[in-house]
Amino acid sequence: MDAKKGSEATLMKHRTTVERKSARELVVTRTFNGPARIVFEAWTTPALLKRWWAPKSFGVAFISCEADVRAGGTYRFVFGHPASEHPVEFFGRFIEVTPPSRLVWTNDEGGDGGAVTTVTFEERGARPWSSCTTSIPRRKRSTRPSPPGL
Predict the structure, then answer these.
(1) Which of the 8 DSSP states describes residue 150?
(2) Is the pLDDT score of 89 beyond 70?
(3) Cys-Cys with 34: which of 9, 16, 38, 86 at CB 3.0–4.6 Å?
């Protein structure tokens, strides 16, 4: 088998799809070569998450990974990039943790009303798969008047 065919087979084996369900919902689905419980562990163990969350090809360094993975627990991820003077932080809290099948967390770095991400892990036949859904809640209507012309 030549290298090109081998890489194509790998792409098909670990296929990732992205689908915009609505203006406020994005679904990313990927199959993995491993049991759902192992994939769940890779998402919930900081030392493992730090190894794969920010691909080296992006040039992003995963500086800090803190996660208290339980309902009501919090997380804080800090990333750095050579082109950026300051690190970027992502943080929130876990709403639901159901090993090894489901994680739900808030994305609070944008303030109140941030996105909520749900990841499900299942085994369909011989292949585990996960689906990551990010829903952005509707912004609350402001009670302040709009500036003239808007």
Answers:
(1) -
(2) yes
(3) 38
Closest listed residue to residue 122, CA positions, set 26, 41, 35: 35
Average pLDDT over residues 66-78: 96
CB 89 within 8 A of CB 75: no
Q: How many CB atoms lie within 10 A of CB 131?
A: 15
Q: Tell me whether residue 23 is in a domain.
A: yes
Exposure letters 108-126 (e unless 16+ CB within 10 A, then b)? beeeeeebbbbbbbebeee
How confident is the model over 113-138, as a mean pLDDT? 75
Locus of tokens 């950026």: 84
Q: Would you say residue 150 lies in a domain?
A: no
Could you give the C-alpha distances from 16 to 31, 104, 116, in angstroms and in order?
7, 20, 20
Q: How many domains does the chain have?
A: 1
Model confidence, pTM: 0.75
Domain that residue 101 falls in: 15-135
Residue 62 lies in a domain: yes
DSSP characters over 79-106: EE-TT-SS-EEEEEEEEEEETTTEEEEE
In a domain, residue 141? The reply is: no
